[in-house]
Design brief:
The protein has 462 residues and is α+β, with helices and mostly antiparallel strands. The strands form 5 sheets. The chain has an 8-stranded mixed β-sheet, covered by helices on one side. A hairpin with a 2-residue loop joins strand 8 and strand 9. 42% of the residues lie in helices and 17% in strands.
């Protein structure tokens, strides 16, 4: 499988809940100010590129957002993604301390989910580096069936509340999508965004921006979501075609599939045939593996191949026990059903809604650490790898260059302006460095600038 840069952008839900049971005295905008106040003091901005290569910022609608650094290894991506949650949870602790100091009886909560109480949706976007090709739109169209049907495996689970009824569905995000392939993001909210913004050398690369995915809590689900997409993209670049699996009405199919927990109800294909979500996923997996040297894969992608197959089998058999510590939709379903059985209630109970929120909460009140410790949710990262990812960028991508420069500037208390491609020392004497290759982690120009920042005599490149 070829080397590929991948990144995840995660928008978090944010609220300041009253600790007295009364209505919260802090609205979302004010909660965001308390959350980001330490960053404003440190960098005078709520939009910061970090020394770990990632980006932390406040998005539209008072949603904190963390974008991982560019990663070309799945283990780096998982550690980077978890590091974002750690950083935001630490900011929430500081925010709680500030609220307490002002006598405000409220506590900040951050959620790795995709819907707020008012039904507003916020996203988890995946970015995949592709080599530029003329038929990108054809490739994107062909991938739509994969991204629509994968919700049966990598949805985060969702208690749908419609017309006074509560039912369990695969995905929080699926019902919020309105187009298959488009250059828009919020207006039509497509599955694949085709806006040509490569954040790299535009002659060589383009970026595939996938908007449809849920924000996952369980690390194995994130691994499957990204790893299976990587495997598929490599197979497509090697000639795999999926046009015969095109859906007749993608937006109808995504909603029908979301509500069918069996995964076995057929949907219409463009060529007149009908196939179920599990059949489509199995067919895509079989075609991908036919073009993949499994023995040449790293252990992370071999795990993805295995989980992909076990997930499909669980849906086909109706027995989810083989994946109910790895796939969010199965983990949450077991958690909710266990509570309903003990409490003698049903999905519509407000206590079940609070339990679901706790599943997604990344602050101290969240369930993930306890579920991982008790074996109810499998963890793939280690605390050590995540702690490292908070401060250290991936070593094998452009993020290493950006992170070195940002770290050197922070240590030397020098002002530096950075984005995904450009870095500039703000002393009036330096031209911006353009880091156009996301796969490059060595650059003598960066070495020279780091030495300048540190006040050392530069060693000029030969």
């Amino acid at each position: 499988m070829r080397r590929r840069v991948v990144g995840i952008e995660t928008e978090y839900g944010l609220t300041a809940a009253s600790t007295t049971g009364a209505p919260s005295p802090v609205d979302a905008d004010r909660a965001a100010r308390y959350l980001f106040d330490p960053l404003l003091h440190r960098g005078r901005s709520s939009n910061l590129f970090l020394r770990n290569g990632g980006r932390l910022y406040l998005d539209v609608g008072s949603h904190p957002e963390y974008a991982t650094a560019e990663c070309d290894r799945l283990e780096d991506l998982l550690a980077q993604d978890r590091a974002g949650s750690v950083m935001l949870a630490d900011l929430a602790v500081s925010g709680d301390e500030a609220l307490a100091a002002e006598g405000i009886q409220a506590r900040l909560h951050l959620f790795r989910n995709n819907l707020d109480a008012a039904g507003n949706s916020f996203g988890c976007h995946e970015n995949y580096l592709l080599h530029r090709r003329r038929d990108f739109h054809d490739v994107a169209d062909a991938l739509v069936a994969f991204f629509i049907t994968r919700q049966i495996l990598v949805g985060s689970g969702h208690i749908r509340r419609q017309s006074g009824q509560a039912t369990y569905a695969f995905s929080q995000r699926a019902d919020q999508m309105w187009d298959a392939v488009s250059s828009a993001t919020t207006r039509s909210r497509p599955i694949i965004n085709t806006r040509d913004e490569p954040l790299a050398d535009s002659g060589s690369y383009r970026r595939m921006h996938v908007i449809v995915g849920d924000t996952n809590v369980a690390e194995p689900t994130t691994a499957l979501k990204v790893g299976s997409s990587e495997l598929l993209l490599s197979a497509v670049e090697d000639g795999l075609r999926l046009a015969d699996l095109a859906l007749a009405d993608p937006m109808r199919a995504i909603r029908e599939i979301n509500g069918d927990l069996s995964g076995r109800e057929p949907v219409d294909l463009a060529d007149g045939r009908r196939m179920s979500a599990t059949q489509i996923q199995r067919e895509i997996r079989d075609r991908v593996l036919a073009r993949t040297d499994i023995e040449a894969l790293d252990e992370w992608h071999r795990y993805v191949v295995d989980l992909w197959g076990r997930g499909i089998e669980a849906l086909e058999s109706g027995d989810w026990s083989g994946v109910d510590t790895e796939l969010d939709v199965a983990i949450k379903r077991r958690l909710v059903e266990s509570y309903i059985s003990r409490a003698g209630t049903d999905l519509g109970d407000p206590r079940v809604a609070r339990l679901e929120l706790s599943y997604h909460d990344i602050t101290a009140q969240g369930l993930r650490p306890r579920m991982e410790t008790s074996g109810l949710m499998r963890r793939l990262t280690t605390p050590e790898s995540v702690a490292q990812a908070v401060d250290i960028p991936p070593a094998t991508t452009r993020a290493a260059l950006r992170g070195r420069l940002i770290g050197a500037a922070e240590d030397a208390r020098r002002d530096l302006t950075a984005d995904w491609v450009h870095v500039r020392l703000d002393d009036g004497s330096s031209q911006p460095l353009a880091l156009q290759d996301p796969l490059s982690h060595e650059d003598p120009r960066v070495d020279v600038l780091v030495e300048r920042i540190r006040g050392e005599a530069p060693t000029l490149p030969a």
